[in-house]
Amino acid sequence: MQGDDSDYFARLTMAVAVERDQAAFGVLFDHFAPRLKSWLTSQRMPVDEAEELVQEVMTVLWHRAALYDPQKSSLSTWLFRIARNRRLDAQRRAKGKDAFGEAHWQMMEMQASDSLVEGEERDARVRQALSQIPGEQMELVKAAFFLGQTHSEIAEATGLPLGTVKSRIRLAFQHLRRALEDSSVP
Predict the structure, then answer these.
(1) How far is the C-alpha of 140 from the C-alpha of 152, rounded, in Å?
(2) Fold type of domain 1-105
């Protein structure tokens, strides 16, 4: 049934993207909004903030449904990744500092103004760079950034020492940085 659900949600998302189908969006909202809210509150986010963030995520779905690619991930994965990223951004803002600094904000501004073609080219470079990360490091990156696990949770799940988990993730990002720098040179 999982594959059927995935196809069904992909079709609804396409209807939102192409036809601005409000009924299809309503079905998606009714299905995903409570799940996103539940997950966010399980991440210790206050209920009112979780509700607001769910609204943001669903607004992204409405406006950017055409960017969803069912060949790359399920709609659920895509929406939860957006929610996770927005949650982390909200946490950084609440602390009054941005862990990534000015470069992070510049990148966000560039992403907002990039054309779809430029975005696809960038995504292809990132996918290519990610494919160059060694397998064991990539598994840890997936756990941390796509599943939202903390380094401690990853260490417990894999049986690796916490320092090893942190080192491998750091090495993965060094590989990613080098690959992206190499791909940007004409």
Answers:
(1) 11
(2) Rna Polymerase Sigma Factor; Chain: A (1.10.1740)
